[in-house]
Amino acid sequence: MLTIKQNLLETIRGGNPDRFVNQYEFMDIILENPVDFMAPPGGSIKTGWGITFRWPEGQIGQFPVHDEEHKVLKDITKWREQVKAPEIPDTDEAWAAAVEHANSIDRNEKYVTAFVAPGVFEMCHHLMSMEDALMALYEEPELMHELIDYLTEYELKLAEIICRRLKPDALFHHDDWGSQKSSFISPAMFEEFYLPAYKKIYSFYKQNGVELIVHHSDCYAANLVPFMIEMGIDIWQGVMTTNNTPELIKQYGGKISFMGDIDSGVVDFPTWTREIAAREAERACTNCGKHYFIPCLTQGLGFSSFPGVYDCVSEEIDKLSKKMF
């Protein structure tokens, strides 16, 4: 029987896996980074960038607050005065918990996985609102290039500290690039504004010991896959069924692998059932096959919004491995 890590490599290299890679099992994700970005459920947080996030009681996630009082970047023409990158902690004390976690992982079995969120596109609209960010790409492209370069430099500083202190084997990086039906911006605009940023970021990680780049974007982004390949993504996590995952595997398998095709919105809800989980897992595994595909909830970490769903899906994937391999 292959180890978890060996089975992952056989799957994404088109070799001889002996079972499905089961969701997030191959990544041990280090979430103890001393960089604030997540409000507690039912609460709020103001990050070092000045962005206020709220997670309303009873909702399944957070989002930034963009009323006049809380919006960080109110005028793209004044971004240099209004946007100030926070200092990234770089002391033994600040990183002690993350380093301890990294050192506890068996690197022969799982990938020591650094975690970075939010990404460059999300940072743009977190600072200034989605509407303002999209309009600025059209109305002030030169200034948006400058802002994106500034955000990229921050990410590269963070990457240097992460690689030096944690020596990760993998990176799990968040940046949502679309809705369920389309990318937020056209491929041409994505290529102009965001591809160069990610080529710099992901090449830095690859040059500093990271073997595997896993990018989370739970949306439609099939039209951006060529750019994902160009920027160095090994696995796109969060692939929704609206992307036609089997067709993507057929077209791009061998250059990139796809993790998802079990839409969280279909499976992970208050009145979920095992029957629904089993149906969706079987559909995904049957349609997508054994190579270049990892069956997984589209949610961006290894848990579910409602208790029991993630474990149930994992159990159903194990059953399908016994049946199909």
TrEMBL record:
GO terms for molecular function: methyltransferase activity; uroporphyrinogen decarboxylase activity. InterPro entries: Methanogen_methyltrans (IPR052024), UROD/MetE-like_sf (IPR038071), Uroporphyrinogen_deCOase (IPR000257). One of its GO terms (biological process) is porphyrin-containing compound biosynthetic process. Keywords: Lyase, Methyltransferase, Transferase. Residues 50-268 form the Uroporphyrinogen decarboxylase (URO-D) domain. CDD domains: CmuC_like. Its EC number is 4.1.1.37. It is an enzyme of class 4 (lyase). Pfam families: URO-D (PF01208). The keyword Lyase applies. Gene3D superfamilies: 3.20.20.210. This is O-demethylase, methyltransferase 1.
